[in-house]
Amino acid sequence: MNCPVCLHPVTRPALTGADIFFETSTDAFNLSGCAACHSLFLDPLPTEEQVARFYPAQYWWKSSAGLLRRLERIYRRAALRDHVAFIARAATQARSDAEPIRILDVGCGSGTLLGRLKESGFDVLGIDFSAEASAIARTENNVEVIVGSLRDARFADQSFDVVTLFHVMEHVLNPREVLAEVRRILRANGRLVVQVPNIESWQFRLFGAQWYGLDIPRHVIDYSADSLQKLLRESGFRVDRVRHFNLRDNAPAFASSVFRSLDPVSRSVRQRQRGMREPSMLAWSRHMLYLAAVGVAYPFAVAEALAGCGATVMVQAAKER
To answer: For residue 180, which of 207, 212, 228, 257 sits 20 to 30 Å off, Cα-Cα?
Structure first.
């Protein structure tokens, strides 16, 4: 099959992996690599119906209860500081007048990032497939979230100054269609902010199919920094900034790859699926162990980012006229 990113016809088998984090399938999944842009993708690409079965119920973050919940919220808000700063800079380049800048966050989950952006004075809106996550976004973060897909939302032309897609593009089968829709709804000087795991990272080279950033089979396409930028340029965007590090994702990806049983997201989802709740002391101990693992991983995460091989790549791009 042709590469779904750059459409190049030459691809080759790359690796085989399984769903080791959410265990939605016992199948082995083959990934192929593109000879031109070096992206990876499930081969054959699944249908939309098959992709839907890869997601467990309640596939989004939900905090714990009591004091642990408050501490988790403090940590998550602090970890999003550089996300907010990156978006704020993009917003100032999109508009310079006094009107509130309108931001759409695609795949917003329970809306923690949107809440931070709203506190910073932006006019925000989210969209997500999960009705339950959307309800939490409203009640806990006081933001409006539309339930559904970007395509089905049918926003008017030039509706937003900034559109963000954090860890969305690796989940979609039709990246060029998604970017065409984003371009349509962005205003003339609008900015896109997109972040994906980076398969040219040291972490991917170290862990291979066991890397948390690969998340087989939910990540149907895996990007390098170059392949993402090439896709953006061919979709009518001009790349302004590229960043290889952020607080929320890089070091935690390393920790979750080494200690899968401690990963808070997959652990939380599995517990909700089974109708279980961890005893308080066990939850505290696992959270503290995970936090320690993240702390130990930070020097490595910083080093790979400084070398231009960070675990994630975050790109700001302008809509070309």
So the answer is: 212
Q: Are 146 and 118 in contact (CB under 8 A)?
A: no
CATH code for position 46? 3.40.50.150
Whether 176 is covered by a domain: the verdict is: yes
Kindly state whether residue 79 falls inside one of the protein's structural domains: yes
- Assess if residue 1 is contained within a domain: no
Q: Mean pLDDT over residues 193-200, rounded?
A: 98
What domain count does the chain have?
1
- Average pLDDT (249-264) is 94
Q: Which residues contact 48 (CB under 8 A, 6 or more apart)?
A: 173
SS (HEC) of the chain: CCCCCCCCCCEEEEEEECCCCCCCCCCCEEEEEECCCCCEEECCCCCHHHHHCCCCCCCCCCCCCHHHHHHHHHHHHHHCHHHHHHHHHHHHHHCCCCCCCEEEEECCCCCHHHHHHHHCCCEEEEEECCHHHHHHHHHHHCCCEEECCHHHHCCCCCCEEEEEEECCHHHCCCHHHHHHHHHHHEEEEEEEEEEEEECCCHHHHHHHHHCCCCCCCCCCEEECHHHHHHHHHHCCEEEEEEECCCCCCHHHHHHHHHCHHHCHHHHHHHHHHCCCCCCHHHHHHHHHHHHHHHHHHHHHHHHHHHCCCCCEEEEEEEECC
282 CB-near residues (< 8 Å, 6+ apart): none
In-domain check, residue 6:
no
Range of the domain at 191: 11-319
Alpha carbon separation from 247 to 111, 178, 182, 224, 320 (Å, rounded) = 18, 27, 26, 19, 30
Of 29-33, 46-50, 218-222, 279-283, the poorest mean pLDDT is in 279-283
